[in-house]
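lol ok so funny story. i was supposed to be doing the assay writeup but got distracted and ended up predicting the structure for this chain instead. priorities right. anyway since i did it might as well share w the group, maybe its usefull for someone
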Amino acid sequence: MRKSKLHLHTLLILILTFLIACSSVADDNSPIVIKDINVSEVSSSIAPKDAPTQTNIELKAVMDNLSSKQDLRYEWRVEYLDLDLDFNAKYLNDTQEDATSDSEYNTNSSYFFVNTNEADQTSLIIFVYKDGYYKVTLDVTNLVEKKTKTAIIKVGEPELPKLNLSFNIPYSKKIDKSDFVGRFILSYVEKSKKEVVDLKVNASDLNNRWFPTDVVVDPFKSFELSIGSFIVRDETNPLKPTTSIESKDINNVYYSISSSPNDIKKDKLLSREITFDLDSKKSSLFQIFKDENYVWEDGELFFSILTWGYDKEGRDLFEVFNGSITEKSPLYKVNLSNKYFVKVFFGSFGHKSTTSDYYVYFGPDGLKTDEFDPSRQRSLIGVPYGYILGKLGDNGKVFPIGYNYSYLYLESIPVHYVKREHVVDSNESKNSDNSIDNDNSIDVEKESDSTGDIS
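and the output, tada:
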């Protein structure tokens, strides 16, 4: 009887041990839930500052109840973010698989230092030496799955990049600043603020290089760029005339080709380049004029008229007529005699041809031809010749603007703001050896207004 009770007791212990073991395995295999990444200040007494511009930040993984009881592996990754427009594709993804390859991570040791805690892998301390945006990625794995959580930390007030502009034309030593004419108007609107910045830019400023503007761009805000060449007052409705920046500079422009001044048939200009054949035995009147219902308060449309014909001795003759129309001079006309073929380029800006003594004119949308770039050496081959391009700073990714460019920042990752209340500069630090700890207190908060309005 005593033996049977002993066997029963032993059996109960074995069953209980088995159930506990099964329960433990089940917990380790249950779904991983990362609720958040907490960002907080680290006291200088815990992590002394080695530099006057140093900021100490602690990161802590916040797990749900079941996840916190599992035997999990925690891996942290920190990188400095270069401020550019490829954030959405390259950096700002909060999925299980990070799209950025290891070779692309900016782990510059002069910007920050990571202090890991082997005893507690759920936390991490970063010593940050440079103001900027930092991306923190946490990978948590068990025997079954891997989960990833990402946070963006803005430290201090990083310097934002300025917008650079260029024409999509190849560099050439044969043309310089003096060979460019015309100008355009750039409008920059940050959608969250609804503020408009209008900037007049001369084509000679861009010529065949990058031109730095004073427009400061924040890649963490949605914005829109618009480019036009005319300030136009629409008087088609006399009771309510409107004034706006006209994007397409060939709008409201007409031309006519006639053999008699009394037989003028006007055609609306629909393209930057037109061609037509003529009877060389007849004289033709070619005219270009603007619609009188639209007042050009500012702006000028240029054109080059290239003609092929014969001289008085019947020899081939190539002749060019360069002109423009404005509000004060709304009509241009030229008599074409002994001409059999004509090509005309229209635009609000352009440059002198590298092969002949005439100007190539175009607008923000460029010219859809490889005639002036046969070797296809321009920055973006798939974009028309002369198209207006942009980039942020000196090393940003080139993007096409044309008439309009809209950038949408995806609010997929929270941004934590670490504000430096006081930072000792290098001159002050030389005069103080013991005051660094108290000079760099920080305030951590999630930025409620750090992202663009994407509604």
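Residues 2-29 form the longest helix (28 residues). Confidence is low (pLDDT under 50) at residues 93-105, 421-443, 448-455.
back to the writeup now i swear
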